[in-house]
Write a structure and sequence with these properties.
The protein is an alpha+beta fold. The chain is 63% helix and 13% strand. The protein is built from seven helices and seven strands, in the order E-E-E-E-E-H-H-H-H-H-E-E-H-H. Keywords: Membrane, Transmembrane, Transmembrane helix.
Length: 299
């Protein structure tokens, strides 16, 4: 039995509350977060060569430190001593405690980020640059790792449970029903935390979407400012362009004094400008996003 799961190291404030995931966001492979649980257990059942009794050997690799305490404090009933699979239920319960604690820690970190983002946006709509997108990415990344591990754990428990059922078909084991119930209960606990991680994924996606919308609003405000400045200077730009064309001739300093001469072909300017303007306005009016939305609503 082998299961790889992500561990999460967090930074805490002076009150001990988790505030961020202690994972550097860098392209340097030497600084990547390598904190993983690599659980592996081998359960060996064999006959004792001396007395012919069944003997069970458990090999643990990278086991949680608390698992040793669980075994030291364990008091097995006679029926449990004759069922090696009961040991697997203890291991799975301890793995769940470790992984579930990581899931809660990650949720606690996100809760702080979520609360901070919502409070900032409620009081100041121009906070796009202060949103910690790197932290949101870190939380989302660890959530994906954990969700994958919990899914794998459910598959593993299902395989163990089917193996146990096959064993029961071959021989009767006292207290087997209790062991089966333990396997089912542990499987439900893993599934419940997996669902909680799925909910966390949606919350992260929701707050990330909100953050992007805020940044987009900031950019939109900048574009409105640029558009307003353009609108203010547009009339003077048009006038300067028209009067600087060859349709007008400004004679200054001659014997007759200053004078303005208008070309007899000035009408050509209006013949071209008015239709082109009308075509542009028509295209904008009929193919703008607002007009497309109206047509979709009527369809």
């Amino acid at each position: 039995m082998r299961l790889v799961s992500k561990s999460v190291q967090v930074n805490r404030d002076e009150k001990g509350r988790p505030v961020s995931v202690a994972t550097p966001v860098t392209s340097n492979a030497k600084e990547w977060d390598r904190s993983w649980f690599n659980f592996a257990f081998v359960l060996i059942e064999e006959k004792d060569m001396n007395n012919g009794n069944d003997r069970t050997t458990l090999l643990c690799f990278d086991a949680p430190p608390t698992l040793l305490k669980e075994f030291n404090d364990l008091k097995l009933a006679e029926a449990q001593q004759n069922d090696a699979y009961f040991i697997l239920t203890i291991i799975l319960q301890e793995l769940f405690r470790v992984m579930d604690n990581v899931a809660w820690t990650l949720a606690d970190v996100f809760r702080g980020v979520e609360k901070d983002t919502l409070e900032r946006t409620a009081h100041d709509k121009r906070v796009g640059k202060s949103i910690n997108f790197s932290e949101l990415h870190n939380i989302s990344k660890h959530q994906i790792y954990l969700s994958e591990a919990f899914q794998a754990a459910q598959y593993m428990i299902g395989d163990i449970f089917r193996s146990y059922e096959d064993r029961l078909r071959k021989k009767t084991i006292q207290g087997a029903q209790n062991v089966e119930q333990k396997f089912l209960h542990i499987s439900r606990m893993f599934k419940a935390t997996h669902l909680r991680l799925a909910s966390l994924e949606k919350r992260v996606a929701n707050i990330t979407s909100l953050a992007f919308n805020i940044v987009t609003q900031d950019d939109s405000s900048s574009m409105h400012t640029i558009a307003l400045i353009t609108l203010v200077f547009l009339p003077s730009t048009l006038i300067a362009t028209v009067f600087s064309s060859s349709f007008f001739d400004f004679s200054i300093g001659n014997a007759d004094g200053a004078s303005i001469h208008l070309s007899s072909l000035f009408w050509v300017f209006w013949v071209i400008a008015i239709p082109v303007t009308a075509v542009v306005v028509y295209l904008w009016w009929n193919f703008s996003p607002r007009k497309k939305a109206e047509r979709r609503s009527l369809a």
